[in-house]
Design goal:
The complex is a heterodimer of chains A (about 140) and B (about 190). Chain A is an alpha+beta fold and about 140 residues long. Helix content of chain A is about 40%, strand content about 20%. Chain B has one domain (about 20-175): Trafficking protein particle complex subunit 3 (Muramoyl-pentapeptide Carboxypeptidase, domain 2). Classes of the chains: A alpha+beta (about 140), B alpha+beta (about 190).
């Protein structure tokens, strides 16, 4: 069964603004998740410099033995990345859906301060629904 | 998974939820009237409208990028065309045109024949210095700043002041890509 382990959203300065854990193992406390997020931010930036090809926009997929990491960076610098089971399909599509949920339920909330941690209930609710729907679709295949 | 191409302004406009145009015009009019009452100075109102537009623009840009699927524009010319054809269509339901390019391609005019903000509006003599639609200049400035472009947006022609169209001059001041502080010994 394809599963998502966790979702991170990083603002353009590399600070973690959202972290959600879906797996039963590998749970991280706040400090660790902050550390992992800034590490990823730096690695993503370094990969753009290291790339032999010009116009590289950074790491999109990291494949390891026990997980895959899919990353989407919007043109505004916000990064959305998801850690999932190896071989999980359609994570790019899911990341785009999450980006749209972010533009709706986070950015359109006038009380949300830009670049700050996301504390929007509507975003949480809709995100859970989107992930559930994704799981159902994947199981159905 | 096959990448989805960019969508046209019409396609997106027909898919998003829309609001009654009169309600939109009335709401904007109420904002401007209230600002005039609170601030009294026309210049101050112009500045506030621009600031409000800026605050909208910095959030609007992600919505625009998410819904329109545009990829990074290669040059400022493409940026201006995208704003006029896709941006204005998507958010205001009107198409604008881009003209008056300068020699290095950093300054252009976006011309609006139709502007839903000003339906039924006439400027009284007491408010002659007012840029009624100044929120739009703020929106463009804010949105472009979030994609690393510092711009200056000013009104060249304003129908409420007697001109024949609405013309915004958009000038690219500089591109500011994200700088990473690799060197500590600067």
């Amino acid at each position: 069964m394809a599963a998502i382990y966790s979702l991170y959203i990083i603002n353009k300065s590399g600070g973690l603004i959202f972290y959600k854990d879906y797996g039963s193992s590998g749970r991280m406390d706040t400090n660790d998740s902050l550390r992992v997020a800034s590490l990823w931010h730096s690695m993503h930036a370094i990969s753009q410099q290291l790339s032999p090809v010009s116009g590289c926009l950074g790491i999109e997929l990291l494949e390891a033995d026990t997980f895959d990491l899919h990353c989407f960076q919007s043109l505004t610098g916000t990064k959305f990345f998801v850690v999932s089971e190896p071989g999980t399909q359609h994570m790019d599509g899911l990341l785009k859906v999450i980006y749209e949920l972010y533009t709706d339920y986070v950015l359109k909330n006038p009380f949300y301060e830009m670049e700050m941690p996301i504390r929007c209930e509507l975003f949480d609710i809709n995100l859970t629904q989107a992930i559930q729907k994704d799981r159902v679709v994947l199981l159905g295949r | 998974m096959a990448p989805v191409g960019p969508r046209t302004g019409d396609a997106i406009f027909s898919n998003v939820e829309r609001v009654n145009a009169e309600l939109f015009t009335l709401t904007y009019g109420a904002i401007v009237r209230q600002l005039l009452t609170d601030l009294e100075e026309v210049e101050e109102v112009n500045k506030q409208l621009d600031q409000m537009g800026y605050n909208i623009g910095i959030r609007l840009i992600d919505e625009f990028l998410a819904k329109s699927n545009v990829s990074r524009c290669i040059d400022f010319k493409e940026t201006a065309e995208t704003i006029a054809k896709v941006g204005f269509k998507m958010f205001l339901g009107v198409t604008a045109s881009v003209t008056n390019w300068d020699a290095d391609g950093t300054c252009c005019s976006i011309v609006l024949e139709d502007n839903p903000l000003v339906d039924f509006v006439e400027l009284p003599d007491t408010c002659q210095g007012l840029y009624y639609c100044n929120i739009l200049s703020g929106v463009i400035r804010g949105a472009l700043e979030m994609v690393s472009m510092k711009t200056e947006v000013t009104w060249v022609r304003d129908m409420l002041r007697g001109d024949d169209a609405f013309e915004l001059q958009v000038k690219l001041l500089k591109q500011v890509p994200e700088e990473y502080p690799y060197k500590d010994d600067e």
